[in-house]
Amino acid sequence: MYGGRTQIAPEKEDYLVIDKIPDIFHAGHLHTFGYLNYRGVIVVNSGAWQEQTDYMKSMGIKPDPGKVTLVDLANKKVHALLDFARERSIEMLSSLNTL
Predict the structure, then answer these.
(1) What pTM did the predictor assign?
(2) CA 12, CA 61: separation in Å to the nearest integer?
(3) 68 — phi, psi (to 5°)?
(4) What Å distances lie between residue 9 and 4, 6, 12, 36, CA to CA?
(5) Residue 81 pLDDT exceeds 80
(6) What is the DSSP string of the chain?
(7) CA-CA distance, 37 to 50, in Å (whole number)?
(8) d(CA 8, CA 10)
(9) Using alpha carbons only, what angle is made at residue 62 by residues 60 and 67, rounded to the nearest 5 degrees?
């Protein structure tokens, strides 16, 4: 069975299927940061708020802690990446006129 040890509910309908196409799709499971525009949908994967743990290191996961995406909802454009691990991001946030 797909997933090995991952249990899958024996349902006739997949309740995780998204019927209505969203403006923004956000995920965060992998602890790595990234974003892109896929067919008009902004796809954002959050980083983490935690440095690399021994477990992550053993699994080869290199997290991107403290990174945040700012999206202008009026035009669906990504305007800024705030990296709270760097001091200048706080300055950049305070210099923004509106969100």
Answers:
(1) 0.66
(2) 34
(3) -130, 140
(4) 14, 10, 9, 31
(5) no
(6) -TTTT------SS-TT---SPPSEEEE-TTS--EEEEETTEEEEE--BSSPPPHHHHHHT----BTEEEEEETTTTEEEEEEETTSHHHHHHHHH-S--
(7) 26
(8) 6
(9) 160
- Residue from 48, 38, 37, 42 nearest 83 by CA: 48
**87 token code pair:** 């001091």
> Taking the C-alpha atoms of 67, 73, 75 and 81 in order, what is their torsion angle to the nearest 10 degrees?
-10
Lowest mean pLDDT among 7-11, 19-23, 54-58: 7-11
Burial class (CB in 10 A: 0-12, 13-18, 19+), 81: middle
Model pLDDT for residues 15-54, shown as the tens digit of each residue: 888 999 999 999 877 788 888 999 989 998 887 888 889 9
CA angle 55, 56, 58 (to 5 degrees): 65
pLDDT attached to residue 66: 83
